[in-house]
Amino acid sequence: MPRNLIPTTVVGSYPQPEWLIDKQSLQNRFPPRIKDHQLWRIPKHLLGEAQDDATLLAIHDMERAGISIITDGEIRRESYSTAFATSLDGIDADNPGTARHRSGKPDIVPRVIGPIKRTRPVQLKALEFLRKNTTRHIKVTLPGPYSLSQQAQNEHYPDDKSLALAYARALNKEIRDLFKFGADIVQLDDPYMQGFPDKAKLFAIDAINTALDGIDGTTAVHLCFGYAALIDNKPSGYSFLPELEHSIANQISIEAAQPNLDLSILKQLPSKTIILGVLDLNDMAIETPAIVAERIREALKYVDPNRLVAAPDCGMKYLPRNVAYKKLESLAEGAAIVRNEITQSTI
């Protein structure tokens, strides 16, 4: 059975242990846009070691569950964007400003006070730790340039497009280093394209293509409606998705299970590999492998199996760890069912 047919992956995050971070406080607020050391339960001088230990737990869980392409679970991050967003020159995260959250409410965000520049690698140490501790294919996730531009108070650039392109140039340098030092896939998480689609249609694809310009490696873009733990009612269709066919990313990652997405939309991404969300993270019930297999089969009506990767809908950080693990087991087993069906049908 070809193991590269319908591989499985996670979108990015995996549950952080309760002993590491205050998960209740994390869940009772918007995802942090600046670093919040009060969320961590471990003293600063021990935090790095504790995060390493928790990352090993995440890696081993994904391996034991049978996932093909793993991440480090984003265990070291308060949210998907904080680590990169606060590491750049031109950013003042100590005296934050405000920007509109995708819910429409004000959010505390970094201030852009000068030219954005990446002067040092941000995720390289995390990548090296992951690479050293698994033989699986690995993916590294970064915040996308459009979302970064909407999660900052701009006091330097003339407009949002200029800001997004500045972030994109910084991301390009980071992505080059990640592939140089062992990443198999690099993914840009850019959910604000769905949150503010009208503005995204003006320059988000330009920003993504600038971030990925000249990159020699498999790249992905993730788009979603927001964490299931924070957003209950989701639309059944995307306001921004076919536009990603014009990006130079190889893969497009979308959530489809919770919103019960009409998968015929996938016909509008004919050149892309689809990372399809087949696990509903709003439902604490564990999907059976049969349910996962049926969701994959539905996608195969519109996507060739060689262009399909099975995944959860979104990051799993807000789930109980036992639930996340069991869901990943079903993901791996469901994909194996369909993989075997395809193999048998070609014999």
What is the share of helical residues?
25-40%
Top-tier CATH class: Alpha Beta
Structural class: alpha/beta
Span between termini? 11 Å
Look up the CATH topology: TIM Barrel
The Rg value, from CA coordinates, equals 19 Å
The portion of residues forming beta strands comes to 15-25%
Q: State mean pLDDT (0 to 100 scale).
A: 95
Q: Spans of 5+ residues with little confidence (pLDDT < 50)?
A: none
Continuous helix count? 10
Strand order of the largest sheet: 1-4-6-7-8-9-10
Number of domains: 1
Main sheet makeup: 7 strands, parallel
Number of strands: 10
Describe this structure in words.
By secondary structure, this protein is an alpha/beta fold. The protein is built from ten helices and ten strands. The protein has a single domain, classed as TIM Barrel (Alpha-Beta Barrel). The protein has helices at residues 23-27, 44-65, 82-85, 124-132, 145-150, 160-180, 192-195, 197-211, 289-299, 321-345; strands spanning 69-70, 89-100, 106-117, 137-143, 153-154, 185-189, 218-223, 251-254, 273-277, 308-311. The longest helix has 25 residues, at 321-345. The radius of gyration is 19 Å and the shape is globular.
In short:
With 347 residues, the protein is of the alpha/beta class. 35% of the residues lie in helices and 17% in strands.
What keyword list fits this structure?
347 residues, alpha/beta, TIM Barrel, 7-stranded parallel sheet, 35% helix, 17% strand, globular
Topology (elements, then pairings):
Blueprint: H1 23-27, H2 44-65, E1 69-70, H3 82-85, E2 89-100, E3 106-117, H4 124-132, E4 137-143, H5 145-150, E5 153-154, H6 160-180, E6 185-189, H7 192-195, H8 197-211, E7 218-223, E8 251-254, E9 273-277, H9 289-299, E10 308-311, H10 321-345
Parallel strand pairs: 1-4, 3-5, 4-6, 6-7, 7-8, 8-9, 9-10
Antiparallel strand pairs: 2-3
Helix pairs in contact: 2-10, 6-8, 9-10
